[in-house]
Design a protein that fits this description.
The chain is an alpha/beta fold. It contains twelve helices and eight strands. It is about 55% helix and about 15% strand. Bound molecules: 1,4-dihydronicotinamide adenine dinucleotide and (2S)-3,4-dihydro-2H-pyrrole-2-carboxylic acid.
Length: about 270
């Protein structure tokens, strides 16, 4: 059984740990976590998921087959310097860090198998939409292992490394856009007299229903939209307000800014 070490034990690391441990992709005793500080955080992950904490002698790093980097982009250089004396020369690396290139890891940790991925926090419940790219050194066995881990937390698409900036803008950050839309829908529904509980349930079911229609009917979204929109009806009136509010333009700007920020984070690291 392969041993995996998480460098950085924040919210994304927890989302992935929850997904892989709860779906049995790895035995918790083969998963190790380390952080810059905050022993309480590590103890809490240990209690919740049965994972182990990397000890002061860093034995787990010496024995690791895969090291997963889940720090903020600004901390990645420190993290690489911290672990470099201990990391097994054969260990592969999987990064989930926004923007930071495979080349940056090769510069910091030497040429070794390196995968760069972009999951999202829905990994917690096995529903991540992830992208992944590889360097030349990742062999078929390690690729299968990493794809298996990413598949245990949701779906995964293999893409060119440069496209990970767009994946980050779309599905990495995507859950936040959806939650923001839910906040707006909820506020508007409450304003029109619904209770928060009723509004929340109706919104969740509407999102789930629309997502399932897209997935199962394979009908184009524009066609599905037309099916909802009766001429002179309520939907038409609502959609007109979105058009007037430049909804599509705002979405294009949102993805554009997020993609550009991913590139910036990479350049800054
Ligand atoms: N939160 C999200 O929705 C997603 C985040 N990501 C990426 O995941 C990464 C982590 O994000 P979050 O978990 O949200 O951040 P976070 O701030 O919750 O976690 C980062 C962790 O890294 C630790 N750390 C910092 N320096 C370290 C070092 N030298 N050695 C070991 N640990 C160190 C910190 O103590 C902290 O616990 C980011 O690079 C982000 O781009 C990717 C996909 C989605
Ligand atoms: O906001 C961020 O930078 C990270 C990357 C994707 C989601 N959260």
């Amino acid at each position: 059984m392969k041993k995996v070490v998480f460098v950085g034990a924040g919210s994304m690391a927890e989302a992935i740990i929850a997904g892989i441990v709860e779906r049995g992709a790895l035995e918790p005793q083969n998963v190790f976590v380390m952080n810059k500080s905050d022993d309480e955080r590590l103890t809490s992950l240990q209690t919740k998921y049965g994972v182990s904490i990397v000890c002061a002698q860093k034995e787990a790093l010496k024995n690791a087959n895969l090291v997963i980097f889940a720090t903020k982009p600004k901390d990645v250089h420190h993290a690489m310097t911290d672990i470099m004396p201990y990391i097994n020369e054969k260990a592969a690396v999987l990064s989930v860090i926004a923007g930071v290139s495979i080349q940056t890891f090769e510069n910091g940790l030497g040429t070794r198998p390196i995968a760069r991925s972009m999951p999202n926090t829905s990994a917690t419940i096995g529903k991540s939409a992830s992208g992944v790219a590889w360097n030349q050194s990742v062999d078929t066995t390690m690729k299968k292992f990493i794809l298996g881990l990413l598949e245990s937390i949701g779906i995964v698409k293999e893409v060119e490394e440069d496209d990970l900036h767009a994946v980050t803008a779309l599905s990495g950050s995507g859950p936040a856009y959806v939650y923001y839309m839910v906040e707006a829908l909820e506020e508007a529904a409450i304003d029109k007299g619904l209770t928060k509980d009723v509004a929340r349930e109706l919104i969740i079911q509407t999102l789930e229903g629309a997502a399932a229609m897209l997935k199962h009917t394979k009908i184009e979204p524009a066609e599905l939209r037309k099916n909802v929109t009766s001429p002179g009806g309520t939907t038409e009136a609502g959609l007109k307000a979105l058009e007037t509010g430049l909804f599509k333009e705002a979405i294009a700007e949102c993805i554009g800014k997020a993609e550009a920020r991913s590139r910036e984070l990479g350049a800054l690291s």
